Amino acid sequence: MAEIELKRCPCCYGTAEFVEDFDDHGRFVAVACTRCGMGSGKHYPLMDDARPNAANEWNRRPDLDMTVLVDGVMDLFPGADRQALTCLAQLAEKAVRRG
User: Fold this and answer.
1) Model pTM greater than 0.85?
2) Domain map of the chain by residue range?
């Protein structure tokens, strides 16, 4: 079976992994961040593998776009230095990616 790719956590940029567990409804599969614990909903397999559904839910969000962040700050603080904010955003993104 092909490996299923999971995006990094949208909160802390930590790595994500599949979690399989049991509850009152039976066995379920979810995706959870290994750093902060944020997770997807529970997916209960009937006959098929539930991991693709859990991965689709986890991955269903836009990628981090620092230009949107900088634009938002510029809207809030019109006198801010765009070049400095862009540099800070790039440094923050690198730091988060390194973990």
Assistant:
1) no
2) 16-59, 66-98
